[in-house]
Design brief:
two-stranded antiparallel sheet, 14 helices, mainly alpha, about 10% strand, globular, single chain
Length: about 450
């Protein structure tokens, strides 16, 4: 394989691995802060135990997320130096802000929260976790605004054979980025809630700390349902934005080959990219695709045949990733709704069939997240900055295929090891259950 393909594989591998940790960090940070808020406002020691237990899983995940995220930024200089030279004036600004403001803020207050037990007042300790949580979400916002500029470039001019910043405020207010951020944030909340439900279900199946895990399950069920519905709603807004700004991506997502008005949505499709058609089209919802794209039943949908082959994304992977993402999202809405209904019963621990399902459902939001990013990134190809810079023109010219292949192998081994450590630690402490003796923390903090 050439340098371009290997560099794409390397960035995809490191990016997708890093994203295993990001959404759980986003969701668990807020949920942990919420649990500690309940403890501080009610004095109920159960909420403190929940804060400590779920907070421990949050910290394990946060540490691995930091480690895997830092290495990604170095690739812009090593593998993608032409990209950095061409758009660094714009793309570098959000990265600098994220590192010097958001990452610094979250790191400082995470430290205060970890080591502040027994040393600062309850309210000060609560403030620390909220500041860390907000900073974590701000960090995601800034990175997603940078990515949104690659999807929908705004606020720039082409000058001196490179893209230069013209209006930073326009970059920060890019609607594509804010929709993407909201969609991503809610998906992180849903993922964290499903993890809590899955771990709680595992313990309830063993009649371990039933009161603790029933409360955790009930809280997570509501969060999961609200967040999953929010993901679906923002996903609809995002689809409209994609149809307007990236018609090739939208056409690939839906395997739409011909340009038509009032296009129906086929629920069953089998793409045939080599023949530029669909081998199977069935269960059509009249005008459904036009409604999805523009909220107008008679809207025109641009087909893939309207674009040169070299400017089309890979249809089948983009299409399948989109369908799998939507399918998993629909499952999450239904499962979390059932979870709310069953959690209101006194005999939740007896619903063994559903608890077993929720244990096995833990990977569902992870997979949905990964498929969503495949849609976003595969669907943008062959552009690295849509309509401005092609991916083939962004790769470094000074590195060899051997160098990239060796670094890809190194990253794969290293990240595989880190992933194994993360899974081992999460399973170990999730199975261990909550601490029973919190007397020192309660006594010291109770005097504040």
């Amino acid at each position: 394989m050439d340098v371009l393909t290997l560099s794409q594989l390397q960035f995809a591998a490191t990016g997708m691995f890093h994203w295993i940790f990001v959404p759980l960090t986003l969701g668990l940070s807020i949920l942990t802060a919420w649990m500690e808020t309940k403890y501080v406002t009610t004095g109920d020691e159960m909420w403190l135990r929940m804060t400590k237990f779920w907070g421990k899983l949050f910290l394990i995940n946060f540490a691995l997320g930091v480690v895997t995220g830092i290495t990604m930024e170095f690739q812009f200089g090593m593998n993608w130096s032409e990209y950095s030279r061409y758009v660094g004036d714009i793309f570098g600004a959000p990265l600098a802000i994220e590192a010097t403001f958001a990452f610094f803020l979250e790191s400082v207050f995470i430290g205060v929260w970890i080591f502040g037990w027994n040393k600062i007042s309850k309210k000060a300790h609560l403030t620390a976790i909220w500041l860390a949580s907000v900073a974590t979400n701000i960090s995601a916002l800034i990175i997603l605004l940078a990515n949104a500029w690659m999807q929908k470039p705004v606020g720039y001019v082409l000058r001196n054979n490179r893209a230069e910043m013209e209006n930073f405020l326009t970059v920060l207010t890019n609607p594509y980025g804010w929709i993407k951020f909201t969609h991503t944030l809610l998906s992180g909340y849903a993922l964290a809630a499903f993890l809590i439900m899955g771990v709680s279900a595992w313990h309830l199946l063993r009649n371990n700390e039933n009161d603790f895990f029933k409360r955790s399950f009930r809280l997570a069920a509501v969060w999961a349902f609200v967040a999953s519905l929010g993901v679906a709603l923002t996903g609809d807004f995002h689809a409209v934005e994609i149809a307007k700004t990236q018609p090739t991506k939208f056409a690939a997502m839906e395997s739409q080959w011909e340009t038509k008005r009032g296009v129906g949505m086929n629920l069953l499709i089998l793409p045939n990219a080599s023949q530029e058609c669909n081998s199977v089209e069935a269960l059509c919802v009249p005008n459904g695709l036009s409604m999805l794209a523009f909220h107008d039943p008679n809207a025109e949908i641009k087909g893939l045949k309207d674009f040169p082959k070299e400017l089309r994304p890979m249809v089948t992977p983009t299409f399948l990733s989109f369908r799998l993402m939507v399918g998993l999202g629909s499952f999450m809405i239904l499962a979390s709704l059932v979870a709310i209904l069953l959690s209101r019963r006194q005999n939740l621990e007896r619903q063994r069939w559903f608890l077993t399902l929720m244990v096995f459902a833990i990977p569902a939001p992870y997979l949905a997240e990964q498929f969503g990013w495949l849609v976003a990134e595969l669907g943008r190809q062959p552009w690295i900055v849509y309509g401005v810079l092609k991916t083939a023109d962004a790769v470094s010219k000074s590195v060899s295929a051997t160098q990239v292949a060796l670094s890809l192998l190194g990253f794969t081994v290293l990240y595989g090891l880190l992933g194994a450590i993360d899974i081992f630690l999460l399973i170990k402490y999730a199975k261990k259950g909550p601490d029973k003796n919190l007397s020192t923390i309660i006594n010291v903090q109770g005097r504040a």
